[in-house]
Specification:
binds ligand C6P; alpha/beta; 17 strands; single chain; 40% helix; globular; Aspartate Aminotransferase, domain 2
């Protein structure tokens, strides 16, 4: 399929030792690691053509502008957006969602309804709650089953002419459940509601085709895609981006400014006020080149192998319970060991060089659903191996024996 040993050589950080042990990085759902070609693209930018973009006639500024706009084209192609100005470069998923939620303020009135799911990350809950507070709109919540899947019949019952926008995650960060977004989008459209998909956790494993999905908005973060932090994208259908007001005012988002009246720039600049994360945008494009060179389809197959292997091995540990047991999952395993706080396991296995996330994973409603304070979350990437999983499972067992 692909040679994992060779792939691992692309990631300098994988050579690191933590507490004297080789790093085993299983916190990929929080942030993926960065291949050397992405790191070098940032070094190259600062060494050779660091300048502000869209502003200067000088060579450096033009080179930087070309590279930044070139990245936008790569992102457009990757997500199959019809037009490059439908790609807004943001600081990440959270920024993209806030931009849309803020823009809907003038489009909603008291009594309108908006729909979220109980599987969401706080970034796809709180901005909408704030929108509801501003407008008097009502927030409805799609419930989830014990397996951690959305109860789609309940969603269908919730939809009505009053529904103005639906916002759901493509993949759950805490459980890994892959949601049936094609169906969710189709149903929202039947009622004329707009739909936003939070793709933060899907995009490292799945290549979404926004044209085919027919969603109105799709958001993601580069740092989960082998890119740097502080950069991401919002895809928005042109008709929606034209309708929404600017999110922030400032340089570069204007057409003309006078004290009487300011007119706004065309898309995408209307939503890109201020100097952006230029090297980050360029590196985002390089990260997509890197992933596409390997192939996201191959990545998904390999990661699924890791998921099945780790699930089987972990379940051999007595008193261990996995949360999120959908058959459609990305390579995320959330679990607890009866009688032990997740934080204690996370702390002990860190001493052995293993990085996992513990806690509520910014998804408290999911923890409430299972009536637990949090979980241990191991999330795998295509540069992880079965040998690392063996070491991890032994470490969890060792931690369990120390703590019980
Ligand atoms: N989840 C995790 O450990 P930002 O921080 O803007 O790049 O992404 C926010 C976000 C939004 N939606 C989903 C589904 C996410 O998973 C995240 C980020 C990380 O699960 C960090 S909290």
């Amino acid at each position: 399929m692909f040679n994992v040993d060779n792939i691992r050589k692309d990631f300098p950080i994988l050579q690191r030792k933590i507490n004297g042990h080789p790093l085993i990085y299983f916190d990929n759902a929080a942030t993926s690691q960065t291949p050397d070609m992405v790191i070098q693209s940032i070094v190259d930018y600062y060494n050779n053509y660091n300048a502000n973009i869209h502003r200067g006639v000088h060579t450096l500024s033009q080179e930087a502008t070309d590279a930044y706009e070139g990245a936008r084209l790569k992102i457009q192609k990757h997500f199959n957006a019809k037009k490059s100005h439908e790609i807004i470069l943001t600081s990440g998923t959270t920024h993209g969602i806030n931009l849309v939620a803020s823009g809907f303020t003038s489009l909603l009135k008291g009594g309108d309804e908006v729909i979220v799911s109980a599987l969401e990350h706080h970034s796809n809950i709180v901005p909408w709650q704030m929108l509801c507070e501003r407008t008097g709109a009502i927030l409805k919540v799609i419930p989830i089953s014990l397996k951690g899947e959305l109860i789609i019949e309940e969603y269908e019952k919730m939809l009505s002419e009053k529904t103005k926008i639906v916002f759901v995650g493509h993949v759950s960060n805490a459980l890994g459940t892959i949601n049936p977004i094609e169906h969710i989008i189709k149903k929202a459209k039947e009622f004329g509601a707009a739909i936003l998909i939070d793709g933060a956790q899907a995009t490292p494993h799945i290549k979404p085709d926004v044209e085919q999905l027919d969603c109105d908005f799709y958001v993601c973060s580069a740092h989960k895609l082998c890119g740097p932090t502080g950069i991401g994208m919002l895809y928005g259908k042109e008709e929606w981006l034209l309708k929404l007001p600017p999110y922030q005012g400032g340089g570069e988002m204007i057409n003309e400014v006078t004290f009487e009246k300011t007119t706004y720039a065309d898309l995408p600049h209307k939503f890109e006020a201020g100097t952006p994360n230029i090297s980050g945008g360029i590196a985002f494009g390089i990260a997509l080149d890197y992933l596409n060179h390997i192939g996201l389809d191959k990545i998904a197959i390999y990661e699924n192998e890791l998921l099945n292997y780790a699930t089987k091995k972990l379940l051999e540990i007595d008193r261990l319970k996995i949360y999120g047991t959908s058959t459609k999952k990305t390579a995320v395993i959330s679990f607890n060991i009866e009688g032990i706080h997740p934080y204690d396991i996370g702390t002990i296995i860190d001493k052995l060089g293993i990085a996992v996330r513990t806690g509520h994973h910014c998804a408290q409603p999911i923890m409430d659903h299972y009536n637990i304070p949090g979980t241990i979350r191991a999330s795998f990437s295509f540069y992880n191996t079965k040998e690392e999983i063996d070491v991890f499972v032994k470490a969890v067992e060792r931690a369990k024996n120390m703590l019980l």
